[in-house]
What does this fold into?
Amino acid sequence: MSTLRNKVQLIGNLGNHPEIITLENEKKLAKFSIATNESYKNSQGEKVTDTQWHNIVAWNKTAEIIEKYLEKGSEVAVEGKLTTRSWEGKDGMKRFVTEVVVNELLMLGK
It folds into this structure.
């Protein structure tokens, strides 16, 4: 059960082309967001779709695969862990972002 402490699994579509960053040590970083959709019927019986956006980060070999094969609209399954990081903005305010750091990636669709 200890492996379930911080585990996220999502299936969704990329909202934009992945941002690929090559670091000084030649390591690659891929950053992108995916949308997940959930549908339900409201109290009037109308179908409502709720879309949630998730920030995704992948490193090294996984980032290279993402760079080569994924684009805006691609459907993927990701498994990873949630991380939150913070920094100070130019205005002096502390900012936070929560991301899924990918352990495994599965390309779906075409």
Notes: The radius of gyration is 16 Å. The chain has a mean pLDDT of 93.
